[in-house]
Amino acid sequence: MTEPIATKQDPSRFSAVLTPHRSLGPKGFTVLMTLVGAVSFGTGLMFYVLGAWPVMGFLGLDVALIYVAFQLNFRALKVYETVDLTPEELTVTRVPPSGEPSSWSFNPYWVRLSIQPRVGRSTELAIDSHGKRLVFGSFLTDGEREEFAQALEAALSEARSPSAA
């Protein structure tokens, strides 16, 4: 998660970019795939020498499937959300892996921020306004959601204050 940023031009503005955690970078992925490939090749070579040559193909398929699974995971990690708050408007923009953004705008005076506990699952961070509800930050951990909710709630309070107008 990226920290909220107050712009220098307008101190009453709150802006944050929420991104999923990525524990394995490109260099780590290369090292991991090299190790998996080397172990699979060594094991396959042993089976080939013993006369069980079809096993080598299955081990190669395993490496290919692991590679595809990681690529799909990396694609899913391209999702991000931006939260921009001015005294006039709160805007949440979600950009999926396809790159086509969706935006929702709210009046900060009518917005209520909530964190809902869910049985057996992680919490849910949502914005409620005029009977509509937007759940966002679903890829954040519970702690990150709570931390972000506190920062956004403080910024909303500041935006609602008469001095912000």
Q: How much β-strand is present in the residues?
A: 25-35%
| Number of separate domains | 2
CATH topology (fold) name of the largest domain? PH-domain like
CATH superfamily of the largest domain: Pleckstrin-homology domain (PH domain)/Phosphotyrosine-binding domain (PTB)
Q: Biggest sheet, strands in spatial order?
A: 1-2-3-4
Radius of gyration: 23 Å
Overall average residue pLDDT: 86
- Specify the overall morphology: elongated
Number of distinct helices: 3
Question: Tell me, what is the CATH class of the largest domain?
Answer: Mainly Beta
- SSE order in H/E notation? EHHEEEEEEH
- The structural class is alpha+beta
> Which architecture name of the largest domain does CATH use?
Roll
Give unreliable regions as ranges: 3-8
- In angstroms, what separates the terminal alpha carbons? 29 Å
